[in-house]
Amino acid sequence: MTPRLDALGIVTADMAASLAFYRRLGLDIPADADTAPHVEATLPSGLRVMWDTEAVIASFDPTWTRPAAGAERLGLAFRCADAAEVDSLYAELIEAGHQGHLKPWDAVWGQRYAVVLDPDGCGVSLFADAQ
After folding, report:
1. In sequence order, which residues have a C-beta less than 8 Å from that of residue 22 and are 6 or more positions away?
2. Model pTM?
3. Which domains, ranges and CATH numbers included, belong to the chain?
4. Alpha carbon 89 to chain centroid distance?
């Protein structure tokens, strides 16, 4: 499988405020999602928008700090075939000289997940559904 762009990720300090903003832009987000640490909405095109609270990100990496405005707040997410592909693609990118941001881990929402930085320092997520 070739990785494909599947989702856009947003890290937010205030989930309810962020979801309210995007609801106003027409995204169909469940009303009961405001207190969740991770939320997803699928657009008509099939592309997903995902939100994570700063707290959930920090819980996986105690050294994580809130990024400067704009930096690393929005990111690209590429679906992989399985957990092994997440791990191997992450390793391949690191070996090619790219900077790792979050090593592969099993996320609470049921995915194998990792983040590398693109050449401009933007976070690019790699993930696969749990099997």
Report:
1. 29, 41, 49
2. 0.67
3. 4-129 (3.10.180.10)
4. 16
